[in-house]
Amino acid sequence: MQLRLGVNIDHVATIRNARGGRLPDPVRAARLAIEAGADGITAHLREDRRHISDDDIARLKADIKKPLNLEMAATDEMIAIAVRTKPHAACLVPERRAERTTEGGLDAVGGRLALKPKIAELRAAGIRVSLFIAAEPTQIKEAAALGAPVIEIHTGAWCHALADGHKAAADTEWRRIREGATLAASLGLEVHAGHGLDYASAEAIAAVPEIAELNIGHFLVGEAVFVGLAETVRAMRAAMDRGRSRAGKG
Ligand code: PXP
User: Fold this and answer.
1) Which atom in ligand 1 lies closest to the alpha carbon of residue 197?
2) Quick one: which of 71, 19, 65 has its CA closest to 217?
3) Residue 89 phi/psi, 5° resolution?
4) How far is the CA of 80 from the centre of ligand 1 (A)?
5) I need a labelling partner for 91 at 20 to 30 A (CA). Which of 78, 116, 127, 241 fits?
6) How many CA atoms lie within 13 A of 134 on its CB side?
7) Closest residue CA from atom 12 of ligand 1
8) How remote is the C-alpha of 223 from its chain's centroid?
């Protein structure tokens, strides 16, 4: 299975908003990322609009030629924006502590009653719905029961353990991700992953054959400061291709 790269351009908007005004433009970053090999663009319209704005989402939808994945909280306001804008996909993420599981993903189990009609509304609008959840069996099974066709596994805990050199914790998280991906695929879910990925972790996780897409932002925008966004996206694509070539080989 091909492994897609979704480039998250939120932090281009973070830099713009540090000064106000229009520059750097996240839509220009999106175009450049696609030219360099991104398969799609991801942007998170937060309730507090701390980086991406409503106007950014409208311009991304009008301008880019690859799928737009809108990350959003499952609020009435965001559902209305998504239904109006019709991105290719909507990834439901937690923004408030009460919506999170202990691992940091969306609490699909605790939030099931509120999530069910929202997922149905997005699906009725032709939007592919994904739930950003920890690789926990109860959460994965609930995502399938709620009718979400896609989950995105939260890789934050794994990436933080790797970065901090906590090998035992990283190994535990890695097992959880691999088993979660296998369980999700067996339930018919498409599996994505993201949060905190860099070249090394993206190459490692690319070897998990059930994973169809990685969504990566902060590391790419940070590296772009030093070597440029196009070069960074190309290097990430190459790391993912190396990892995928090892898929299923243990
Ligand atoms: N996937 C989801 C659902 C996210 O919320 C984020 C962070 O916005 C990412 C992927 C990308 O994470 P990072 O910026 O750490 O690469």
Assistant:
1) 16
2) 71
3) -140, 155
4) 22
5) 241
6) 18
7) 195
8) 18
Q: What is the pLDDT of residues 231-246, one digit of tens each?
A: 999 999 999 999 999 9
pLDDT tops 80 at residue 249: no
**pLDDT reported for residue 248:** 72
- Give the residue among 122, 103, 120, 100 at the shortest CA–CA distance from 111: 100
> Do 192 and 151 touch, CB atoms closer than 8 A?
yes
| Catalytic-residue membership of 44 | yes
| Residue 75 CB neighbours (<10 A) | 15
Determine whether domain 4-244 maps to CATH 3.20.20.70: yes
State the sign of the Cα–Cα–Cα–Cα dihedral 177, 180, 182, 188.
negative
Ligand 1: residues within 6 Å at CB? Answer: 8, 10, 44, 71, 91, 93, 132, 152, 194-197, 215-219
Amino acid sitting at position 233 = V
Cis check for the bond before 24: say yes or no (omega within 30 of 0): yes
Q: Which of 44, 51, 154, 192 is catalytic?
A: 44
Three-state SS at 40: strand
